[in-house]
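# step 3/5: fold
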Amino acid sequence: MNENDINLDEVVIDDIVEQKDDDGNDTTDWKALALKNQGIAKRLKTKMSKSKETKTEIEEKPKPEESKNGLLEKAFLRSAGITDKEEVELALLTAKKWNVDIDALVDDEDFQEKLEKHRTKKANLEATSDIKGDKSRTSAKNTPEYWVAKGTPPTADQVPDRKTRVKIARAMISNTKSGKKFYND
């Protein structure tokens, strides 16, 4: 254990002085000294464990306050017009990173730019998410009118759907039978 971790009162243990009788024999009660030192060690051990318990209790108390602050911050963001989950997360992370309060962050020009970029990026992603396929498979190329106007039947690479190719081929055949030479006849 480091001395910085737990602050306990210092215990000063007296130096052991050997006691001798008149004949020079050692009369020190070693057993009593060992029991005394063992008692001191036990007291220090219980003090240390109690201080650890109180330290963990102290650390647990601020957590509910932080969650209350989190709710207050989210409520403030909602009132400022930041309601999307990703935008709220962006605001909280930015405030933590920049070490500023939420109310100062909402008014900050740099954050407003960052938020606008995020909103634009999300809007673009939503707008393009419904588009399927690539340029070779556009819906305009899958219509019989397009291929009749073009004048050539599509290949399997151009229109991969067999049913659509059959519709296009039938429209081209029926168009040739009608005798139209021009598209506006």
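# step 4/5: annotate
Helices lie at 30-60, 62-79, 85-98, 102-107, 109-128, 144-150, 162-178.
# step 5/5: archive (pending)
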